[in-house]
Amino acid sequence: MLRFLVVLVVGLLLLGCGSTVKQVTSSEFQRGVVIRDGGQLVLRPCHATTGQPLQDDSGELLHWFAQAPVVFDQAYAELMVFPDPLDPRLKHIDQVLLVGSQPRACDFELNGNHYRAAGEKPLWIADVRDEGIRVKVRGSLRQLHFPSVEPERSDTRLIWRSQLNIQGGYQMALMLSREACHDQYGTRYPYHAELTLNTLQLTGCAREGNLGLRSLVARYRYEDTALSLQLDLKADGQLILTDVRRQAEGTVASYMKGEWRVLESGRVLLEVSLPGGTKQLLFLEREGHGALRIKPGHKPYQAGVLLRRQEALPSKDMSDVINTNAPSVVQ
User: Fold this and answer.
1) 93: Cβ contacts below 8 Å, ≥ 6 apart
2) Nearest residue to 79 via CA among 26, 9, 12, 28
């Protein structure tokens, strides 16, 4: 079972290619299944049913298809993309972060992990998290939890060094090098990983985690005859919630800020700052097509209000939702 999970997880891995790739300031993170149909590429984002045409400006995705050990018509990929200026439906690939043939990769998000490194012979996993670094090596009876430390950083490497004073002591060093890494299944990751555990030297590949958080950055909307909601989840963990109530005596609009995060369970937690300095917690369940449903019992919203995901988060201010002539439900 552990081997199966690592194969799938090591098939999810990563983020960040080489420094030679051109940077496009408007590019956004996308993950999903890329379908190759003749000379055309189509991206079907995770949790969505419709696809978007892709153009591989980087050349890296087409290279992976060409070099794959067997012929694939589709692959899981994590990409940085930007819209075509003339056709917003067309997405240009600026950077390929990860690509592999894992059919269930959209189910794995590594919430709570900043990085995951893994390898085989022997099978091992190292998770870098806020609370520390968790290391598991096959054949060991326990998982080691090393204290949290700041990594040593350079342009091409991250190195964590930590120790445990139990059972004679453990010294650990985890190094991630920003270079393409391939596992035995052909998955391409953005980091090569080296783990030193006392005298044991292990190698593998690594990727960034918190995919739920990265995938959720967007604008979400709900609207009926009496209520309009707009929720903007930003990449820095901040949020803006605009609540517009239509009543017989007029329209009342509330513009609230706060913070959000993805729990390890996959639920989304909103901490909204209310007038007067109080805070309200809202828990959202993630559903198909990228929608978020407010869990029942959280007033002032009805049970099960469904916020539908929009396209990329607009750069302008979100207060434009305060428009009483807005269309009904945005699909």
Assistant:
1) 54, 55, 56, 57, 58, 60, 61, 79, 80, 81
2) 28
pTM of the model: 0.72
Structure letter (DSSP) for residue 44 = E
Helices and strands (DSSP H and E) totals, the chain: 3, 22
**Rounded-to-integer distance, Cα 166 and Cα 145, Å:** 11
Instruction: Report the chain's C-alpha Rg in angstroms.
Output: 22
Sign of CA dihedral 12, 16, 17, 22: positive
pLDDT digits (tens, 9 = 90+) for 270-322: 999 987 788 888 999 888 777 899 987 666 777 678 999 886 555 443 333 33
Closest by CA position to 285, among listed 301, 304, 259: 304
- Which tokens sit at 229? 């909601």
| Per-position b or e across 28-59, b if 16+ CB within 10 A of its CB | bbbbbbbbbeeeebbbbbbbbeebbebebbbe
